[in-house]
């Protein structure tokens, strides 16, 4: 992965400051400025709601398990702030958004690179302090996520050997899930064995199948010489993804002891999501296939809840 040189266009700084400078300092003007910057923060994370916010929120609810609705907004907010921290790091450390996601804040000119970098490093202690307000264990999860984020982005782990890239993906998701699950619990200082097993299995799923997201981003990844499974192995990697998703579907059905009919339905969902990548190979279709992959991941994250409800003694 190549870091930004003189990132984006020369007029990006002017674009980012034009709105603020043109708004009058009245009450409504201040409101407009605040809404503008809140929208910018939202745009840093918008594309990851289906891939991160929804699956991990579901995961924390069933892995904790959630016993009080009072904890629900806390776990969602904790997760979103940490996702914002990861995404500001990711989006200031790679050129791919110019090609793959031009509507994000940096390539669209909503914020300057220097301001985004300041935001990125300011969010790190904010995330730690927020987590400490819940428990030391939540803070340790936040610190682990900061470490994996830095290794993945600033230390170029995402552009190193593909095995390093996907291992860091799995570890990062594990830190996300551990912290969110701690916050979801009434006792925010411990998880039971089922919770830790769920985190381990989820991290392993992401480490071995998250390259599903790379099929849609091959143009930008090739531009920055990023080593991904789709670029290295081509079309055979699509078949490998199908096999991996089906294998995980069968394995998780056995581990979480779900009934035969639910297991068949879950496995068929995995087969459909994986088979789409094999059958449809355009970038537009890969985006649709990735949507179905994320539905499969979300259902996989519900399975620990099934075990707790019907099988735990």
Short description:
The protein has 313 residues and is mostly helical.
What attributes does this structure have?
about 325 residues; mainly alpha; 15 helices; about 75% helix; globular; disordered N terminus; methyltransferase activity; transmembrane helix; transmembrane
Description:
It is a multi-pass membrane protein. Its main location: membrane. It holds the Pfam family UbiA. Keywords: Membrane, Methyltransferase, Transferase, Transmembrane, Transmembrane helix. One of its GO terms (biological process) is methylation. By secondary structure, the chain is mainly alpha-helical. Helices cover 73% and strands 0% of the residues. It contains 15 helices and no strands. It has helices spanning 12-22, 27-45, 49-63, 72-92, 97-100, 105-108, 113-132, 136-152, 162-184, 193-209, 218-223, 229-233, 236-255, 260-279, 283-310. Helix 3 crosses helix 9 (162-184), helix 3 (49-63) runs parallel beside helix 15 (283-310) and helix 4 packs antiparallel against helix 9. The protein is globular and about 65 Å long. The protein starts with 11 loop residues before the first helix and ends with a helix. Mean pLDDT is 91; it is low at 1-14.
């Amino acid at each position: 992965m190549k870091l930004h040189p003189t990132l984006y266009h020369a007029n990006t700084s002017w674009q980012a400051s034009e709105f603020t400078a043109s708004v009058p300092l009245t009450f409504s003007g201040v409101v407009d400025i605040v809404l503008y910057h809140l929208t910018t923060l939202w745009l840093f994370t918008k594309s990851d709601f289906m891939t991160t916010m929804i699956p991990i929120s579901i995961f924390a609810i069933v892995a904790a398990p959630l016993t009080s609705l009072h904890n629900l907004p806390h776990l969602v907010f904790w997760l979103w702030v940490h996702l914002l921290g990861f995404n500001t790091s990711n989006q200031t450390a790679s050129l791919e958004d110019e090609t793959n996601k031009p509507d994000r804040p940096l390539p669209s000119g909503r914020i300057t690179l220097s301001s985004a970098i300041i935001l990125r490093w300011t969010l790190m202690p904010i995330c730690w302090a927020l987590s400490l307000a819940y428990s030391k264990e939540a803070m340790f999860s936040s610190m682990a996520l900061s470490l994996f984020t830095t290794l993945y982005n600033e230390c170029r782990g995402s552009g190193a050997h593909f095995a390093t890239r996907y291992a860091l993906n799995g570890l990062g998701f594990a830190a996300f899930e551990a912290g969110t699950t701690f916050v979801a619990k009434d006792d925010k200082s411990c998880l039971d064995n089922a919770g830790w097993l769920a985190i381990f299995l989820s991290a392993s799923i992401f480490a071995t199948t998250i390259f599903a997201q790379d099929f849609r981003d091959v143009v930008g990844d090739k531009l920055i010489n990023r080593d991904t499974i789709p670029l290295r192995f081509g079309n055979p990697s699509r078949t490998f993804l199908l096999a991996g998703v089906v294998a995980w579907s069968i394995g998780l059905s056995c581990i979480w002891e779900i009934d035969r009919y639910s297991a068949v339905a879950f496995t068929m969902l995995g087969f459909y999501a994986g088979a789409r990548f094999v059958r449809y190979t355009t970038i537009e279709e890969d985006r649709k296939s990735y949507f179905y992959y994320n539905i499969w991941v979300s259902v996989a994250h519900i399975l620990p809840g099934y075990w707790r409800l019907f099988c735990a003694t």
